[in-house]
Amino acid sequence: MTRTIEIGSEEPGAPLASVENIGETGYSHVISLPILLGIFGALIALTGTTVAVTQFDLGPTWNLVVAMIVATVKASLVAAFFMHLLWDKRFNLLLLLSAVLFLVLFLGISVNDRSEYQNSIDAFNQAKDSAIAK
Amino acid sequence: MSHAHAEPVEHGNDMPDSLHDDAVHARNPMLAHHFDDPRHQFEAGKLGIWLFLVTEILFFAGLFCAYAIYRSQHPEVFRWAHHFLDWKLGAINTVILLASSLTAAWAVRCAQLGQKSGLVANIVLTIIFACGFLGIKYVEYSHKFHDGLLPGKYFAPVEEAWETPAFAHKHPESARLAHELAEYFAKNPVKTVSGASSNGNMAAAAGPVIVRPALAPEIEAKLRNPEVVGPLVDAGIIENPRWVAAEGLKRPAQAYAFFSIYFFMTGLHGVHVVAGIIVWLWLLRRTLRGDIGPRFFGPVDFGALYWHLVDLVWIYLFPLLYLVS
User: Fold this and answer.
1) B87 reaches A (C-beta below 8 A)
2) How far apart are CA B64 and CA B56, in angstroms?
3) Which residue of B has its CA nearest to A43?
4) d(C-alpha B223, C-alpha B216), whole Å
5) Which of B98, B109, B320 lies nearest to residue A31, judging by beta carbons?
6) What is the distance between the alpha carbons of residues A2 and A46, in angstroms, rounded to a whole number?
7) Which of residues 148-167 of B touch A (CB under 8 A)?
8) In whole angstroms, what separates CA B252 from the centre of its chain?
9) Beta-strand (E) ranges in chain A?
10) Average pLDDT, whole number, for chain B?
11) A69-82, pLDDT tens digit by residue?
């Protein structure tokens, strides 16, 4: 139920926004209370889920993957509904996704690069330890 | 000319000096001079706040990158240190922040619909939730300070990970084994003898030798049981179950790094919460002054968008710091 409300109408004597004068021409979306409270309930339930999942040992990788998936679902709900992206201009969503893209590139390349040098670091530490032992 | 739009605009005498519509501005005291109408002003503000949020995400990305590198290189540090964090306090703070996001979004709705008392109530609730979040953070921080769980060179923990209630609750058998080993080490303090001992078989170059009596058979049995010894090895408390009698119980070499990351990530987030409270107080003042209404709700919308981003960061921080497995 996409309810867009006409706000800032410039016709003389036009009533201020109310739930009645809704139309597709308005410039901002008013979120309905059932959606607002429903999303909050879903976020609380997902928080419970992410805590409950830690009780099961899926191995270190999968526990982290599941936790990140649940966190991303929560983040998407906040972004889509609380942050109005579902009804906003798509350009705002594009901005958010571009930030996420560069975040992923930044983390991915950095972690990969760091892993490449781990052998050299271990060798250095070993050489240092044996030098101190002598 | 076939393209009507390409015709040059002639500036005749009947053109006004400016396209500025004084009547629109007279009806909208909150409409800044350089905007045509409230919609123009709102969309400029919206683009501005989204661009700011992009820079905020990349700002936090630096710390998330540090986290990702340390966790991938030193998983034992995170398995050792997360026992010092109370996941229940983290979960309560998550719920508090989600509730504040609800009231922030609700405040935007009230502003759009001109519900002034609802707007005031939601802003006040958001500020109360934000203060509650900081209050719990204060309790957590003061415990960390008291227990020496601090970043870098200030790291001087008063207890080891296996001594924490969280570790004992999660791995009771492993915690018992660690306590038994600690008791054994206390009863048999390290005595070193020179490598060139009376024992003729000992090579002279072997260096100092730790001499301790043999471990009790039941401790030896536990050290061979991967289910009991596994969590201790994973957390870097036992380096090698075969040599634990000689090596003793350990702590990951870079355990302090977890608390550097913890304090910088939650600290930067906390600074954002404080900034958010200031923004909400400013919005409360403007609301009480009568600035905010259906024709001018941009500031509440943009403040709420910033507040939701603070919530988004915490949504990731909570599992990454408190729910390490």
Assistant:
1) yes
2) 12
3) B98
4) 11
5) B109
6) 25
7) none
8) 22
9) 4-5, 28-29
10) 86
11) 999 999 999 999 99
